Amino acid sequence: MRFGLLGPLQILDGGQVLTPGPAKHRALLAALLLRAGHVVTLDRLTAVVWGDDPPASAESVLRVYVSALRRLVGAGTIRTAPGGYLIAVPAEEVDAHRFERMVEQARRARDAGRAAEAADGLRGALGLWRGPALADVDSGELRRTQAVRLEELRLSAAEERIDLDLTLGRHGEVVGELRALVAAYPLRERAWGQLILALHQAGRRSEALAAYQDARRVLVEELGLEPGPELRAAHDRVLAGRGPTGQVGERGAVPHETPPDIADFTGRAEVLSWIAGQATAAGGAPVHLVLHGPAGSGKSAVAVHAATLLGAGFPDGRLYAALRAGSRPAGAGAVLEDLLRSLGCPEGAVPAGLEDRVRLYRSMTATRRLLVVLDDAVGESQVRPLLPTGPGCLTLVTSRSPLYGLEASRAFELGVLGTADSVTMLARVAGETRVRAEPQAARRIAELCGGLPLALRIAGSRLARRPGWTLEHLAGRLGDERGRLDELTAGDLAVRGSLGLGYRGLAEEEQRLLRRLGSLSAPDVAPWAAAAAFGGLRVERQLEELAGAGLLQARGLDDAGQERYGWHDLTRLYAAERLVEEEGTAERVLAVVAREVLERVRRARTLLLPAEPGTGQTVARTAEWSPALETAHLRESARWLGAERGFLVAAVADFHRAGLADAAWRLAFYLTPFFELRAHHEDWHATNRTGLEAARLAGHRHGEALLLRALADLHRIEGRLEEAARALQAALSRFRELGDGPEEARARHRLGLVLAAQDRPAEAERCLAECLAAFEAAGDARGRADALRALGTLRRAEDLLTAGLRAYRELGDPRGEAAALRELALLHLDLRRVSAARDCAERGLRIDRRLGDRLPEAAGLLLLARVARAEGVPEAARAAAREASTIFKEYGDRRGAARASLVLAGADLDLDEIDGAFAAIAGSMAEFDALGDRRGMAEAEEVAQEARRRRGLPR
Question: Where along the sequence lies the DNA-binding region (predicted)?
C-alpha cells in the first residue's frame, strides 16, 4: 500500500485507488503519514483536525476516526501508542518522504560534482508531484506547518534543477518552464534571474533584458523594492555580454571561520549525537539548532566541537559570528556585513540597509551547504536575519535562552557534567598524573564546581599554573562558600564575570528577585516560595525571564503540579553576594519567607494529624465535607510536602543560619509526621539536629522538649531504644519544668511504647494506662486514640483496639484508622481468627492506597502475606511479601525490607524451597545486624532454626 500527499490525498492498494473518506478523516490520515513510523500526540492530532476550537469530546471522537481509518488501511497499520497514535508505514511508501529523500540524494550528487546525475535525480523527485501538497486536506494546521514547507522545498528543488540544467547547457529546454514559473511566482527573484540567464545563453539578449524590466516592474509595483543583488548581477552579465561560464555555483574561497576546537573537550556524547542526528534527518530543509543552558555550561565549546566533527559535510564552508560584544548584543546589520564579506561579497557591494543585507544573505546562502555557528545569542529577533536558507545548511545557535520563539528550530538544554566527566576534564586541564594521585580531592573539586565546565576549566588552570599546590589544598579553598567565587578566577576567565554578564542584562525586577532567591540554599523553588521572597507579589513572569536568561532552569512540574525552578549552586552564591551588597543581610528576606513557610507547613501537618497533640482539636467538618473530599485533602498534603521536601529541609538550616531560631525549630517540628510517614530518616535527623540547636541557642525550652520527643520517635522507629528512652526522659523533664501536663502526657505515652519494645510489659502498661487517664481528663482526642491503640496492642485487648478505631474515625483520621485496623488484624491472626484478620488487613490496605501512603501500604501487604500463610496459600504470601519488599526498598526502608525478607523466608519454607529461605534469612540478618535491631535478629534466628530443622541440620 502506497500513499500520496503531493497533490490530493491518495491511497494506492495494488492497482486500486482507495477513497480516504470525510474531510476530518483525511486530515487525521495526512498528519499520521507526515510522521510515518513516529508517534503523533493526541494534542497534535486535535490541533490538526479541529484547529484552535476542538470539541470537549475530541479524544473520544479521534478514536472513532482512527477506527474508520483502520478499516480502510488495515487494522494493524495504525497503532495506539503512549500519548497518541502512529502509522506503521515505511517512509518510502509515502510520496512526500520519498520526494525529500530523492532531493537529498540529488544534492549529494551535485556536491560531488555529478551535475547530470543530480539534475536527473531532482527531475525524478519533482515528477512525484500531482498538484499542490495536501490539496484536498482541510487543515489550517497542516497547511501552515507542512504544505508550505513542502511547496517551498518543491520550488527550491525546481530552481536547483534548472541551475544544473543551465550548467549543462540545456538552456533551450528550460526557458518555457521558467516563463511558467515566474508567471506563477512573480515575486521570486531567483526564478527571474534564471530566466534572464537562460535567454542570454540561448542568444536571446533582447528578451533577457526585457525579462529584467518585467521583473523590476513587478517588484517595484508589488513591493516598492528594486531588484536584489542576484537579479542585478544577472542583468549586468547580459549588458556586459559575458558568457555564462561559472555563473551557477560560482564561489570564492571557502570560509572556515569557526574557532579552533578545544584539545581537552570532554564528554557531551548525548548532545553531539543529537546534533549529528538532526543534521542528517532533516531531509532537504535547512536545520536550525539551539544549544541553551546556564552561563559557563560550555555551549560554545560544544558548538565549535560539533562544527569541527561535521565540517566535512559542508563543502561551502563554516561561518562564525559572536552575537554579544562585551555586555551588549551585536546588531544583526553589523553581523550580516561580516557574513556577507565572508561569503565573497566584494568590498563596497554590501547594501546599506538591513533588509537589503538580509535579502542578499539569503540569496547567497540559498544554493550553498554551509555550517553557521551563531554564538551567545540574546534573542530571537537577533538570530532570525542570520539564518541561512540553503536546503543543506546547518545553523548552531548558542544562547542562555531556549529561544522558544525561533521558528522551525529545535533546542537542546545543556546541563552540567557528571562527576566522572568532571574529573576527566579536570585531569585534562590540570594533568592526569596529579588527578590520579588525589582521586578523592579531584571528586571534591568537581562537586564544589558543580560540574560547570567553566568552573572546572578555571580550577584546572589554577592547578596547572601552581605545581606546588595539591588538589586537597584547592578543594579546601573552594570549600568556603564565602570565597568560592573569588577562587574561581583565572586570567580573563571568571565565573563571577560570566554570571554578572547575565545579571546586568536583567530588568530591575528580575535582578531583585534573583538577589532575594540568593537567601535560600535549596536546589530549586516553586513560585509560591519565590513570591514570598519577593514580598508576596506574583513572580511567574519574572521567573520565566530568569529562566530565559539562563540564570534559572525550569525543571517542569513536581508531584504537586507546581512548576519548579532550579539553579546552579554557583549562581546561588552569586545571587547571595548581590543580595548582601545591594540590600544588606538576608535575614529580612528570610523572615518574610519563614512566615509563609510555617503557615503552609502547619496546614499540611494539620491534615496529616487531624488533631494536634495536646489541643483536643479536630478538623472542622463543614457542610461540604465528605470522606472523598477529606481523602483528597490528605493525599494533597502529603504530595505537597513530598514535592517541597528538599526546599523545606534546606529552609530549616537557612532560618537557623539567619538567626531565626523560632522559625527553625518550629519548621523542624512541623515536618516530623511527614518524615515518619515516608521514612525520610536522614532528613528527620538533619532537621531535628538543627532545630534542637536553634531552640537551645534561643533558650526555647518548649521547642527543645518537642524536638526531643520527636527525636525519641525516630530512635524508636530505628530500633535504638536506649537512645529513645534517654531523649524521652530529657523531654519529660523539660515539660515538667514548664508545667505542660498535656505534652508531658504525650511524652509519657511515647515512653510506654519504648518500654513495650524493650519487653518491659508491666512498666509499659502502667505508663500507658496513666496516659489514657490523663488524655481523657484533658479532653485530648488524639492522645486518647493513640493510647487506646497502644494499650490494646500491649494487652492484646480487642475492645481497646476497637475503641481506638472508633476514636480515629471520630477524629476524621483515616491514617490512624488504617494503623488501628492493622493492629486488630495482628490480634485476630494471633488468635487464629484468619478470616477476621484478612478483613481488617484488607480494609486498612484500601485506606492506605486511597491516601497514597506507600510505606503503610507495604506494611499492610506484609500483614496480608502473613494472613495468606495462615490460610495455607504460600504462593499468595510470597507475592504480597515481594510487593511489600519492592516498596520498602524504593523508599530506602531497610528495616521494612528486612522484615519482608523474613516473611518471604517463611513462605519459601511452606513451599519446601529451603535454599531460597536460607538466602532470605541471611539477607534479613545482615540488615538487622547493621541496624542494631536486636528484636529483628531474634525473629530472624527463630526462622533460621525452623529452616535448619527442615534441612535436618543441628539447631
Answer: 1-89
In this structure, are 289 and 379 located in the same domain?
A: yes
Range from 252-266, 456-470, 826-840 that averages highest in pLDDT: 826-840
- Cβ–Cβ < 8 Å for 743, 751: no
Residue from 449, 398, 461, 400 nearest 422 by CA: 449
pLDDT of residue 169: 77
Residue 81, strand partner residues: 84
- What letter would DSSP give residue 552? S
The rounded distance, in Å, linking the Cα atoms of 807 and 617 is 13
Whether residue 146 sits in one domain with residue 43: yes
- Asked whether residue 213 is assigned to any structural domain, the reply reads yes
Strands 489-490, 493-494: pairing is antiparallel
Helix (H) / strand (E) containing 372: strand 371-377
In a domain, 58, yes or no: yes
Same-domain check for residues 839 and 876 = no
Is residue 66 scored above 60 in pLDDT?
yes
| Average pLDDT value for the chain | 87
Determine contact, residues 898/927, Cβ cutoff 8 Å: yes
Are 531 and 490 a contacting pair, CB within 8 Å? no
Cβ count within 10 A of residue 112 = 11
How are beta strands 553-557 and 563-566 bridged, if at all?
A: antiparallel
Strand-pairing partners, residue 551, are none
Mapped onto helix, strand or coil, the DSSP state of residue 292 is strand
Residue tagged 484536498 (cell numbers): 136
* Whole-angstrom distance, CA of residue 768 vs CA of residue 366: 86
CB of 781 closer than 8 Å to CB of 579: no
If asked whether residues 382 and 290 sit together in one domain, one would say yes
DSSP state at residue 253: S
Considering just the CA atoms, what is the radius of gyration of the chain in Å? 37
- Return the SS3 of 730: helix
Same domain, 818 and 867: no
39, three cell numbers: 508517534
Residue 56: pLDDT over 50: yes
3-class DSSP state for residue 204?
Answer: coil
Nearest CA to 792 among 823, 816, 830? 823
Q: Domain for residue 735, yes or no?
A: no
End-to-end CA distance of the chain: 73
Q: Do residue 460 and residue 516 come from a single domain?
A: no
Which of 560, 582, 604 corresponds to the end of one domain? 582
Q: Residue 733: what pLDDT?
A: 94
Please give the grid coordinates belonging to residue 886.
519492592
Contacts 24+ apart (CB under 8 A), 439-442: 441/470, 441/471, 441/472, 441/474, 441/475, 442/471
Work out the pLDDT band at 469, boundaries 50, 70, 90.
very high
CA distance 89 to 110: 30
Average pLDDT over residues 290-315: 89
The answer to whether residue 478 scores a pLDDT higher than 50 is yes
In whole angstroms, give the CA distance from residue 718 to residue 721.
8
Please give the single-letter amino acid code of residue 421.
Answer: D
771 and 745 Cβ atoms separated by less than 8 Å:
yes
- What CATH number corresponds to the domain at position 831? 1.25.40
Task: Please check whether residue 918 is in contact with residue 904, taking contact to mean a CB–CB distance below 8 angstroms.
Answer: no
**Is position 77 within any domain?**
yes
Assess contact for 485 and 577: CB atoms under 8 A. Answer: yes
153 lies in the same domain as 235 = no
Could you tell me the pLDDT band of residue 631, with boundaries at 50, 70 and 90? low
User: How many domains is the chain built from?
Assistant: 7
Biggest distance spanned by C-alpha atoms of the chain? 119
Residue range of the domain that includes 332: 269-413
Per the CB < 8 A criterion, the answer to whether 66 and 78 are in contact is yes
> What are 406's three cell numbers?
525561533
**Which amino acid type is present at position 654?**
D
> How many angstroms separate the CA atoms of 385 and 62, rounded?
40
Last residue of a domain, one of 249, 280, 307: 249
pLDDT more than 90, % of the chain? 45
